[in-house]
Specification:
Structural class: alpha/beta
Largest sheet: 5 strands, parallel
CATH topology: Rossmann fold
Radius of gyration: 16 Å
Number of helices: 7
CATH superfamily: SGNH hydrolase
Distance between the termini: 12 Å
């Protein structure tokens, strides 16, 4: 029995989960009309989340994905685009409906900006540090949507389709991608959320520009997600 059939799904994400015409019009969107064509993403059903939701028989409620957004509040951030903000965590329902599932796939930009991961003394609630910011984000989502199932995604690598020798480096400025994934796992366990552990070493998903998946890459991400769901642990 598929318990997710006809359930409402919302997404908390970054550029990888954007799609023009579906993401909020006032959000920064990576997959514009031109890039959708370049990536061969001809409809929302071609995205990772479109494939996952469609396979599970669910329905999209809100695609709360903002290109370039972090979980943490970067010192230069002047608007509430970061995942731990009140604005982002409150905008996962629509028209009086709350999501049955929120898929939280965000954190790659925190790694890209080399945001600190673990708090030092006095930073336990600092939204400029990844782990407390991720925890606070989950707390706010839970407060706004107390009956919603929250899925926390770890992060994964990408390959560039035009260069077989390229793969996303696993360590940037001394901080490995795996360390951010470890923080996500710990926060998910602490807050009683479902873990979608898609962290993988090479080969990663295929991308159009070192990071953003093309159609094949979207399918590869979706396959990783569905494999976790289909384990039967949910």
């Amino acid at each position: 029995m598929n318990k997710y059939k006809n359930k409402y799904f919302s997404i908390m994400g970054d550029s990888i989960s954007t799609y023009e015409g579906v993401s909020p019009s006032w959000y920064n969107t990576f997959y514009t009309a031109e890039r959708k064509c370049e990536a061969d993403l001809l409809s929302p059903e071609d995205t990772w989340w479109g494939i996952v939701i469609g396979t599970l028989g669910g329905k999209l409620l809100v695609d709360n994905a903002w290109s370039g957004s972090l979980v943490t509040k970067h010192p230069q951030c002047e608007i509430e685009s970061y995942g731990a903000s009140d604005a982002r965590t409150a905008f996962l329902g629509e028209n009086g409906l709350s999501p049955d599932i929120v898929m939280v796939y965000i954190g790659t930009n925190d790694w890209g900006w080399n945001m600190p991961i673990d708090p030092e003394k006095g930073e336990e609630n600092d939204i400029g540090v990844f782990k407390p910011a991720y925890r606070i984000m989950l707390e706010k989502i839970r407060k706004n949507y107390p009956y919603t199932e929250i899925w926390c995604f770890t992060l994964t690598n990408s390959d560039r389709m035009s260069d077989a020798n390229f793969s996303l480096p696993y360590t940037k400025n001394g901080r490995p991608l795996s360390a951010y994934c470890r923080a996500i796992r710990e926060c998910a366990a602490e807050k009683g959320c479902k873990l979608i552990d898609i962290y993988r070493s090479a080969p990663g998903y295929e991308s159009m520009d070192n990071l953003h998946p093309n159609k094949k890459g979207m399918r590869e991400i979706a396959a990783l997600v569905l494999a976790e769901v289909m384990k039967g642990e949910f």
